[in-house]
Design a protein that fits this description.
This protein is α+β, with helices and mostly antiparallel strands. The chain has a single domain, classed as Alpha-Beta Complex (Lambda Exonuclease, Chain A). It contains 6 helices and 5 strands. It is globular and about 50 Å long. The N and C termini lie far apart (about 40 Å). The protein binds iron/sulfur cluster.
């Protein structure tokens, strides 16, 4: 029996960490739950079904050169300390792979940092589990019917591994990290009464 189960971090956890590293400390090291719904919990389900029925989506697969798709794929990696459910795992014509993430929002001028980081998480999980290269990811903004390609470079993957290792230090060793540098985020924070900011 494994007495020391491996910590598997989700993309939602990583989003919390990026917003403020102390969230991870309070939730996992101190065991103080958030009173509100998790900020980055991804809203999925019925809307995904609606997207799959849409005729626009087949045009998209053709445009990006996708020859195989798998939907709602759960992947994990003990080596990466990572797990997640990927909306679509794509095999492309050039035998590389790519994650596709659905966002139920409009595209606003640029791909948000949080969406990029999620794409890197999914890309790493695909590489690890399928043993094929992942050089890009896609985000489909369903409200504006727009999709964006994100280059997944080695530096992005390295940065994510660094974030995960910092998170493990907090979760497994109880390290108390610095809070966010953006103090405006503290105003509505669940933890503002116990956090020294
Ligand atoms: S009060 Fe500020 S520093 Fe503390 S957890 Fe909340 S956002 Fe982070």
């Amino acid at each position: 029996m494994d007495l020391n189960p491996v910590t598997l971090i989700t993309p939602s956890d990583i989003m919390e960490y990026v917003f403020c590293p102390r969230f991870i400390y309070y939730i996992y090291a101190a065991g103080v739950p958030q009173q509100e719904q998790r900020r980055y919990k991804v809203q999925k389900g019925r809307e995904i079904h609606e997207i799959k029925q849409s005729s626009n989506i087949s045009y998209l697969w053709k445009k990006i050169g996708c020859k195989k798709r798998e939907s709602s794929v759960y992947l994990s990696s003990v080596r990466l300390n990572l797990k997640g459910i990927i909306d679509e795992v794509l095999t492309l014509d050039d035998d590389t792979m790519a994650p596709m993430d659905f966002k139920f929002s409009e595209f606003q001028d640029e791909v948000y940092k949080t969406h990029r980081i999620q794409s890197v998480c999914y890309g790493l999980l695909i590489e690890e589990n399928y043993d094929l290269p992942v050089e890009k990811g896609y985000v489909l903004y369903t409200r504006s019917n727009t999709f964006k390609e994100i280059k997944l470079e080695e530096k992005d993957k390295k940065n994510l591994r660094k974030i995960i290792s910092e998170m493990l230090r907090i979760i497994e060793e109880g390290y108390f990290p610095c809070g966010t540098g953006y103090t405006a985020r503290c105003t509505d924070c669940t933890y503002k009464n116990i956090c020294c900011g």
